[in-house]
Fold:
Amino acid sequence: MVSKSYQLTEGNIVRQIIRLTLPILGTSLVQMAYNLTDMLWLGKVGSNAVAAVGIASYFTWFGVSLMLIGRIGAEVGVSQALGAKDPKRAGDFALNAASLVLLLSVVYGTLVYLFAPYLIQFFHIQNKDVEVAAVSYVRIISLGSLLYYPNPTFAGIINGTGNSGLPFRINSIGLIVNVLLNPVLIFGIGPFPKLGSDGSALATVTAQGIVMAVFLFTLGSGKSGLGKLRLRILLYKPYLKRIVKIGSPVALHSMLFASFAIALARIISPWGPMPIAVQSIGAQIEALSWMTAGGFSTALGVFTGQNYGAKRWDRIFKGYFATLFISGSIGILVTACFLLFGRNIYELFLHEPEAVNLGVKYLAILALSQFFMCVEITTGGVFNGVGKTIPPSVTGISLTGLRIPLALVLAQPNVLGVTGVWWSITLSSILKGIVLFGWFYFWMKKHPGYNPSQRRKIRFIRFLPTRIRQELFDTKANI
Structure:
């Protein structure tokens, strides 16, 4: 039985969402810190090393996206089962999701290892050293795929119980290990050989292996909030069908998102390794906003899942708009930081003036889309929590796909050049935020659980039109 402190079907909504979000956000920032640590140290080696890892990372990103089938399926399945007060069903969802992801990790890792040279050749990088380093990096991660890819699903299982603090603490252990090993293995400190980008890959796999061991111990010892799970391979069709149904649209969305990013990198490649390095670092910097929004989205999904199981639609709608305000405000703050401090940020990672200048342009263009990106990601969380993962996936796939033709047109030398690719990203992000918010609002208005009689105000959401906030918020109803 889930601990009462993790029940989200009663009590203060804003406090619960923030309590859930902060550790999830911390976990996301830990992952961001992994990547930034790699880029900081590799930047001292040179932009070629950064470009090699940046290219290789598209395929690890694709793998993590594939594993979202298990993570989202676990978060929604566990949270809904606990909301309906069925802890045994929650445990079965956890075991089936974990088993599925372990098998997918082995298959994906094997395929990427075998085809790594052909995958990297797709980018047509005009630098043999970058190409060789990228292949080597991908293969090291692939050999450690069983340690690298399942951890988000283990975190999702525990997040589903409402205990988002535990995955944060576990992932922080991995970050510490990664921070310590990166310079040692990249530069060959002490008895270790100088491995360059390969050292970064080995540090990452080692750290993730330790994280996985702690997750397995936690789930097996009963400290996860689901009792003592007897960890084993469990593939039961009714659970797998539900997990795949919930998780596959989100995973497909993310995999296509990664594929579109690979295609954009291919469009950029004729300009050489420098723009690829700039975009790779810029994507990690931009993670400040999308990982923050992702933390709120995950928390909102868990909150929504439990309240969906308990049929508390009033709390679902209130929680969504409260979360949207907080997440959107952070997006606006990130926009200001990108515009004001873009040069200072890039000078931390790259030392070639031309690369820094290009990075400043990247952040200035992407800054315009941060608020809308936060709206899209947050709205996706509430859809996921009620098990309707198709709307955010359809919106994301169709409008992210629009980036390719936009980039092909805007990146022409007589139009905008390489910055045209980045304009295609910003314009599509703005559209996604507008479309998905509209989709949810009209769906909500037609839903039987929507109660237009709730007309009291919440002070900190005054940016919404008066009619909407009067209808959706009741300050005395557990806000």
Observations:
- The mean pLDDT is 78.
- Residues 273-309 form the longest helix (37 residues).
